[in-house]
Amino acid sequence: MAEFEPIWRLSLRKSLSDASITPPVADMVATPAGPGGPFILIGTIGDSLAMIRTSAGVVEIKGLGESANGAKIVAIRPAQVDVEVAGQRLTIAKPREGSGG
């Protein structure tokens, strides 16, 4: 249960009218977090939200257009996200169960 503590602390109720300011991808440095990407995909909620684990081990919920670890999320599909890092597009898939990711 302790693994879920960071998720329970997340503030998921945000105002839709408040625009968050995120720096452009070019101003951020992507840090590898796992095989093939700047973060590890834990799972997706439909095609609108992705739950990720950053290289620091922090679990975050991200939506389309948001940045995570230097990568801008450009598409979300069941068990996959497409990100753009330094002008290149990359697909990150959820690791299979038992693969340690």
* Broad shape: globular
Radius of gyration: 13 Å
- Please bin the fraction of helical residues: under 10%
- Kindly report the average pLDDT value: 77
State which percent range the strand residues make up: 35-45%
Stretches where pLDDT is under 50 for at least 5 consecutive residues are 21-34
Arrangement of strands in the largest sheet: 4-5-6-7
Question: Helix and strand succession?
Answer: HEEEEEEE
Category by helix and strand content:
mainly beta
Would you kindly provide a brief summary of this structure?
This protein has 101 residues and is mainly beta. It has 1 helix and 7 strands.
Characterization of the model:
By secondary structure, the chain is mainly beta. The protein is 4% helix and 37% strand. It has 1 helix and 7 strands. The chain has one helix at residues 5-8, and strands at residues 40-45, 49-53, 59-63, 67-68, 71-77, 80-85, 88-93. The strands form 2 sheets. The chain has a 4-stranded antiparallel sheet, with no helix packed on it. The two termini are 18 Å apart.
What's the topology here?
Elements: H1 5-8, E1 40-45, E2 49-53, E3 59-63, E4 67-68, E5 71-77, E6 80-85, E7 88-93
Antiparallel strand pairs: 1-2, 2-3, 4-5, 5-6, 6-7
Please supply descriptive tags for the structure shown above.
mainly beta, 101 residues, four-stranded antiparallel sheet, 37% strand
